[in-house]
Design the sequence.
C-alpha cells in the first residue's frame, strides 16, 4: 500500500513523515526545506495489521498547477504514480488557504484522509473547528494531529488503511468541461474554487481572535528583523552559539570523550605490544587510523552542541527572520531573496543546500547560488574551525563568527562579480515567504536532529576519513621505491613528493610546507580530513586535551609543531574554508547547474577566491604584526593579479558585447 | 521617512504614468493594520501572478499589511502571514 503525504509548504509534512516512519529527514521550521520526494515505511508500532505501508513525503505545494519545480514534483507524482491513499496535511490554523489544494486533491478520485495538523495551536489562537462538519462537507475522513508531539498518528494511519480501495467523491468540481490551456477559463474556475472554500470555512470555523491583528510576534519581529539591528542581532546570536559550544559546554564534554579515545589508543598499543605485531602495522593502526580518526571524532561533542543550538534556532522560527533580513542585501547583488534558503541549509551541509537551489526559478540566479552556497561553513568545516580557534586563538568564539560573516561577505562579492560578468541587471525576481510563528523550540526535536548529524559524522569518520588517514599514513611512511622513510628524511616520502609542488604554490599564503598542503588536498575528499591528516602528518593524537601529550621535537605546543604564526594559521583556515568544497558537493553543483561551463567557472572561482583572500590575510596580517611582508609576496601578487586580470577581462568582454549589442539595436 | 515616501512616489509616477492602474495605491503606500481589498496585480510576470493566485492573492480578496520589516512587508492574507519584498508589494494594487 502506497500513501502519499501532500500539503502546503510548512504544514509539517516532513515532521509527520519522520514521526510515522521513524526516519530523521531534515526538517526546518520554514517552507521549502523538502525539495525532493522521500520514502519510508510506517513504523510497526503505529499500525497492527502488519501490512507494509510505504509513505512518500512530497515537497509542499499550494496548488496542483506547478509554478515552482518542487510543486511540479508534487503534482506529477500525485498524477502519475497513483498512490493508494493520500494523506493531505492541512495546517489547522489556516484552512482558508489550505483547503484550496485539498479540493484539487479530492478531484483525483484517490481516497483522501485529512490530517488536521498543528491542532494544538487552535486553542491558543482562539479557533474552533467543527471537524465532523468538515468531514461531511468534504466527504473524507479528518483526523486531528500534532505531528511535533506524535499525537493522533495511530488514528491517522488506521483511517488511511481503512480508506484503502474506497472511492473518493469530490465536493467541488469545476463546472463543465473546459480547455485547460485556456488561461481565463482556468482562472475563473479557480476563483470559484476559492469561493467554495471560503463558504465552507465560514460554516465550520469560528475565530475568536482576528488573525490579522498585530500580536506580540510582530513586536518581536520588528526588533529581530529590523533594517539596521537585524544583522548585529544575527551576529550576536551566532556569537552566543559559538561561545557556548566552543568555550563552555563543548570542551567540557570533549575532555571526557578525548579521554576515551586516549584509553583506546593505549589499550590497542598494549595489545600489540611486545613485538607481536610488525611495528609498521602497529604504527598504521595507532597513528594513522586511531590517531587520525580520533582527532576528527574528538570534535564530535563540540559539533553536537553546535548543531543542537542551531537546531533550536531553526525550530523557534528565527532562521526564517534571518532570511527576511538578508533578502535585500542579496537582491542588491543580483541574487534572489530565495538564495538565502540554500545558504542557511548549507550551514549544515552544502549538498542539501545546493539541492535547495532548485526552488529558484531564474537559471542564472540558481547557478550563481549553487556556486556560492558552498562558501558557507558547513558541518564538516566546523572541526577545522574549532581546531584552529582552539590551537591558535585560545578558543575565541569570534573566530567562528567571523568565518560565517566572511562567508557572507565573500558570497556578496562573488555575486557582484558574477553579475558583472553575466551582465544581469538588478534582480527582478520576487521574494515571498510564509513566516512561521515563533514557538518555544523543542529540546526533543533539536536532540533528534543533533543525533542524526552526529550519526552521519561518525559514519563518515569510520569510512571515508578512516580510509584517507590510512592512505595518508602509508604514503607518509614509504618512499616511491617502497622503502620505509628514514629518520629525518621525511621529505622523501610519497606524500611529501606529491604535496611538495602544491606547497610551493602556497608559500605566498604563509603555509608552504608539504604537511599542510597534503591536509588541504585531502580536504577536497571530505573537509574533516584536514584535521585527520594534520593529526597523522604531525603525529598528534588529539587536538583538544593537549596538555597531557608528549609532544614531539621538543616543541612547547601544537602551534609550534606546525610552525605557523597566528596570521598564517588564520590564512590556512580561510584557505580551507573558502576553496572549493568536497567532491560530493562539487557533484551536487554539477547536477544543479547542469552546465560544464558553469561548473568549471564555479570551481575556478572558488579556488581563486580562497587563494586571494588567504593571500591578503597572510601578507597584510604579517605586515601589521611584524612590520614586513611575509615570504613570497611578489610571486603571490603576480598570481593574484593574474586571477583578477582574468575576471576583469571577462567583465570587460561582456561590457563590450553589451555595447555592440546596443549599437546593433540602434 | 517622509522624504523616502516622496521619492518613491515620484519614481512611481515616472514609471507608471502611462498605466491606467495609477489610480490605485499599492501595498507600499497603504496604512498599517487596515484591511484593503485587492484591486489588481500589476506584474508582467505571469508566473508570479499565477503563484500569488494560489495563495489567494487576487482581485476582491482582503489583504492587510501587518508590519514593515527591513524593506519587507508582512502581509496577512487568508489567515496566513507572508513576508514579501518591496517589489512584490508594489505589484499588489489595492
Sequence:
Amino acid at each position: 500500500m502506497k500513501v502519499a503525504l501532500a500539503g502546503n509548504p510548512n504544514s509539517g509534512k516532513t515532521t509527520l513523515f519522520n514521526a510515522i516512519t521513524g526516519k530523521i529527514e531534515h526538517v526546518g521550521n520554514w517552507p521549502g526545506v523538502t525539495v525532493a520526494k522521500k520514502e519510508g515505511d510506517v513504523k510497526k508500532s503505529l499500525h497492527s495489521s502488519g501490512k507494509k505501508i510505504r509513505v512518500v513525503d512530497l515537497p509542499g505545494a499550494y496548488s496542483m498547477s506547478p509554478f515552482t519545480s518542487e510543486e511540479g514534483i508534487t503534482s506529477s507524482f500525485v498524477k502519475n504514480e497513483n498512490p493508494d491513499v493520500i494523506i493531505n496535511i492541512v495546517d489547522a490554523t489556516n484552512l482558508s488557504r489550505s483547503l484550496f489544494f485539498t479540493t484539487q486533491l479530492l478531484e483525483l478520485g484517490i481516497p483522501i484522509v485529512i490530517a488536521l495538523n498543528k491542532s494544538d495551536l487552535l486553542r491558543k489562537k482562539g479557533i474552533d473547528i467543527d471537524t465532523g462538519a468538515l468531514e461531511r462537507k468534504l466527504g473524507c475522513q479528518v483526523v486531528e494531529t500534532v505531528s511535533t508531539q506524535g499525537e493522533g498518528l495511530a488514528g491517522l494511519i488506521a483511517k488511511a488503511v481503512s480508506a484503502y480501495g474506497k472511492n473518493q467523491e469530490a465536493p467541488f468540481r469545476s463546472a463543465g468541461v473546459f480547455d485547460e490551456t485556456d488561461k481565463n477559463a482556468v482562472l475563473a474556475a479557480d476563483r470559484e474554487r476559492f469561493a467554495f472554500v471560503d463558504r465552507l470555512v465560514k460554516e465550520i470555523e469560528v475565530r475568536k481572535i482576528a488573525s490579522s491583528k498585530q500580536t506580540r510576534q510582530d513586536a518581536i519581529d520588528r526588533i529581530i528583523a529590523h533594517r539596521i539591528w537585524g544583522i548585529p542581532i544575527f551576529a550576536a546570536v551566532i556569537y552566543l552559539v559559538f561561545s557556548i559550544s566552543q568555550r563552555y559546554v563543548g570542551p567540557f564534554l570533549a575532555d571526557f570523550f578525548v579521554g576515551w579515545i586516549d584509553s583506546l589508543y593505549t589499550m590497542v598499543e598494549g595489545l600489540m605490544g611486545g613485538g607481536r605485531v610488525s611495528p609498521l602495522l602497529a604504527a598504521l593502526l595507532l597513528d594513522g587510523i586511531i590517531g587520525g580518526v580520533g582527532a576528527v571524532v574528538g570534535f564530535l561533542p563540540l559539533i553536537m552542541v553546535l548543531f543542537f543550538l542551531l537546531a533550536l534556532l531553526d525550530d523557534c522560527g528565527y532562521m526564517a527572520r534571518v532570511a527576511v533580513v538578508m533578502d535585500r542585501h542579496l537582491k542588491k547583488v543580483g541574487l534572489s531573496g530565495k538564495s538565502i534558503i540554500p545558504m542557511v541549509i548549507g550551514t549544515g551541509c552544502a549538498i542539501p543546500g545546493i539541492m535547495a537551489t532548485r526552488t529558484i526559478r531564474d537559471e542564472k540566479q540558481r547557478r550563481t547560488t549553487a556556486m556560492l552556497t558552498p562558501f558557507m561553513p558547513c558541518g564538516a568545516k566546523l572541526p577545522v574551525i574549532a581546531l584552529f580557534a582552539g590551537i591558535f586563538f585560545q578558543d575565541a568564539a569570534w573566530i567562528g563568527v567571523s568565518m560565517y560573516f566572511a562567508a557572507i561577505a565573500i558570497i556578496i562579492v562573488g555575486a557582484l562579480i558574477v553579475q558583472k560578468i553575466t551582465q544581469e541587471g538588478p534582480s527582478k525576481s520576487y521574494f515571498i515567504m510564509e513566516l512561521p510563528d515563533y514557538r518555544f523550540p523543542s529540546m526533543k526535536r533539536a536532540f533528534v536532529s543533533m543525533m542524526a548529524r552526529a550519526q552521519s559524522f561518525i559514519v563518515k569518520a569510520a569510512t571515508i576519513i578512516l580510509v584517507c588517514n590510512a592512505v595518508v599514513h602509508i604514503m607518509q611512511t614509504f618512499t616511491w621505491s617502497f622503502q620505509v622513510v628514514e629518520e629525518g628524511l621525511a621529505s622523501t616520502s610519497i606524500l611529501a613528493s606529491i604535496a611538495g609542488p602544491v606547497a610551493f604554490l602556497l608559500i605566498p599564503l604563509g603555509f608552504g610546507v608539504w604537511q599542510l598542503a597534503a591536509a588541504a588536498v585531502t580536504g577536497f575528499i571530505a573537509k574533516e580530513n584536514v584535521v585527520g591528516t594534520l593529526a597523522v602528518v604531525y603525529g598528534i593524537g588529539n587536538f583538544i586535551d593537549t596538555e597531557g601529550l608528549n609532544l614531539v621535537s621538543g616543541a612547547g605546543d601544537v602551534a609550534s609543531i606546525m610552525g605557523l604564526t597566528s596570521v598564517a594559521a588564520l590564512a590556512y583556515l580561510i584557505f580551507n574554508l573558502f576553496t572549493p568544497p568536497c567532491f560530493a558537493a562539487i557533484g551536487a553543483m554539477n547536477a544543479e547547474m547542469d552546465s560544464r561551463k558553469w561548473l568549471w567557472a564555479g570551481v575556478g572561482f572558488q579556488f581563486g577566491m580562497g587563494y586571494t583572500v588567504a593571500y591578503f590575510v597572510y601578507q597584510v596580517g604579517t605586515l601589521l604584526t611584524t612590520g614586513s611582508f611575509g615570504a613570497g609576496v611578489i610571486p603571490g601578487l603576480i598570481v593574484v593579479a593574474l586571477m583578477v586580470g582574468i575576471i576583469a577581462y571577462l567583465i570587460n568582454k561582456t561590457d563590450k558585447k553589451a555595447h555592440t549589442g546596443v549599437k546593433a539595436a540602434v | 521617512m517622509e522624504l523616502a515616501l516622496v521619492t518613491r512616489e515620484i519614481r512611481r509616477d515616472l514609471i507608471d504614468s502611462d498605466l491606467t492602474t495609477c489610480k490605485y495605491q499599492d501595498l507600499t503606500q497603504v496604512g498599517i493594520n487596515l484591511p484593503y481589498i485587492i484591486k489588481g496585480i500589476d506584474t508582467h510576470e505571469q508566473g508570479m501572478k499565477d503563484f500569488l493566485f494560489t495563495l489567494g492573492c487576487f482581485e476582491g480578496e482582503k489583504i492587510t499589511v501587518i508590519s514593515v520589516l527591513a524593506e519587507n512587508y508582512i502581509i496577512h492574507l487568508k489567515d496566513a502571514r507572508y513576508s514579501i519584498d518591496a517589489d512584490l508589494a508594489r505589484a499588489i494594487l489595492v
In short: Residues 230-657 of chain A form one domain. The interface with chain B takes residues 62-63, 65, 67-68, 93-97, 100, 187, 190-191, 194, 207, 211-214, 218, 221-222, 225-227, 230, 320, 324-325, 327-328, 331, 337, 361, 428, 430-435 of chain A (CB under 8 Å).
